[in-house]
Design the sequence.
DNA sequence: ATGGGGCTTCCCATCATGGGAAGGTCAAGG
DNA sequence: CCTTGACCTTCCCATGATGGGAAGCCCCAT
């Protein structure tokens, strides 16, 4: 299995497969005599694992830890769960941040009449968030 | 006003002030004979505008457009509002993505007993999201 | 006049990904 | 058998926003 086929089969681009190999996230596959990478079923499995972890928002370093837990057949499920819960907490923090931004902007946009006139509370807020009038 | 004082006054680090200047986001300030940057009230105002826009999640390029709208006294508030609404939409998209991740992870974590045993639905999902059992 | 803190520029690192060049390889069809 | 086009290899560069740090100059207070 070539890198292109592995990319199609795993959903990870060939570029990223090489990158993951270069940083030691995945094992270097075997090579043909001419140097082409050759992937087996197990490699594709790992690549899909990585793909899925990334899709769930884990960083590459976190994915590395998850891979280690996955390969460690004697891990405690409590460790995995704690890892997941920590990540959920980080996701929730980020969500709250974005919601704060969206809420503020919605409020400003709501107060902006949105017509041909130049007066705009959105720009006014950006220029002076505290609403300190400069007389 | 030195760059350090401008940083304190605006909440933008000296490093970033120089960077914003280098990419043409803010006007180069005047300099002392010895080359020190000297900031005036108007500069601080712009820096705070940038800071606020960034805090609301606008990219630097978007901030550049907002600055242009701000300086253009004849802009239509409709343009600003459309800009804000577009950004709100992007924020909401990102929020929905993160919520999807968090929801999935919460579901998986909920089904993980989290004890000393190695069995873990979280890792099982990462390894095989579709739940295709490999016999 | 000296010491310490602030300023200058310049380069490097991050994180994850993609683009592209230069060159080697493989398979299919003439 | 040779050509052609699609694939592979490595290597370098770019992104976006920010920080770290080095080398060297400057300014002010003691």
Sequence:
């Amino acid at each position: 299995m070539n890198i292109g086929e592995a990319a199609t089969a795993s959903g990870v681009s060939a570029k990223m497969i090489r990158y993951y190999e270069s940083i030691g996230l995945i094992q270097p596959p075997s090579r043909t005599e001419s140097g082409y990478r050759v992937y087996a079923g197990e490699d594709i499995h790992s690549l899909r694992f990585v793909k899925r972890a990334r899709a769930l928002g884990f960083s590459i370093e976190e994915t590395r830890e998850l891979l280690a837990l996955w390969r460690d057949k004697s891990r405690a499920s409590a460790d995995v769960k704690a890892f997941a819960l920590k990540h959920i907490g980080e996701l929730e923090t980020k969500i709250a941040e974005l919601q704060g931004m969206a809420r503020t902007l919605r409020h400003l946009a709501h107060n902006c009449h949105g017509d041909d006139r130049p007066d705009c509370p959105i720009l006014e807020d950006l220029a002076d968030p505290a609403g300190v009038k400069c007389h």
About this structure: Chain B touches chain A through 53 residues (CB under 8 Å). The beta strands of chain B are 30-31, 37-38.
